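[09:14] KT: can someone run the structure on this one? pasting the chain below
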Amino acid sequence: MATWLITGCSTGLGRSLAQAVLEAGFNAVVTARTTNSLQDLVASHPQTAAAAELDVTDKEQVKRAVHLAEERFGGVDVLVNNAGYGYRAAVEEGDDAEVADLFAVNFFGTVSMVKAVLPGMRARRSGTIVNVSSIAGRLASPGSGYYSASKFATEGMSDALRKEVGPLGICVMIVEPGAFRTDFAERSLQQAKANIGDYAQTAGPRRKENDRTHGTQPGDPERAARTIIKVVGGPELPVRLLLGSDAVRIVGAELDAQWQEIGRWQDVSASTDFPPAG
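[09:31] RB: done, structure tokens below
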């Protein structure tokens, strides 16, 4: 029976995924910064669930969560790096310490989890790593530059990781959700204190007090959870899995625009080569 280790299970997609994994009959180490919100999952699945206190920026807690999976279930077969949060600010408004904290969770926390499970996966020559990114890992909106940067970094790392561990029997998949009806736009969204008037028409509409999307997002986290389980258990794993019709539409339009721009500038781009010999 496969064992999943999922970060950020207190609410949202992580919570839905933890519940779906356990209901599907898998073992799961479910984690959150405090485990109070996880006790019902463990009580409902006492043989297959274990809860661990986990702040992904705390490397000792990272080690303990992986050790728990190894001791209780024999190892981690599927790691899902879901823990993370949003941050809104125009680039000029961003606070250095807050941005460092954002990267500590969204990027370096993911790296710490990956490093912790890889020795066991390499020894078994099997395993799957699922790194939850966002459509913000493909394009950036005004006011979300730092959040997008953390997700672009995660995707770049994941691309290289996939090519490094693929020959060892380990798979890596990036998940790119669109807007899902979770608390991401409320409890899991932070923003800079600075508010520069010149950005009122660009970054301003995305400030938390101006965002009216909470509760209206099209994505269903329970359906997303079931989809992730199905894809992970399927015969082929995509490099990137978009979740939500809005994700398909928005990322598709961005890729089309990028390709069109490459075409418009291809002669200029190619003109920087050395001239042909002779």
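[09:33] KT: thanks! Strands lie at 3-6, 27-32, 49-53, 78-81, 86-88, 127-132, 170-177, 189-191, 240-243.
[09:34] RB: yep, looked fine to me
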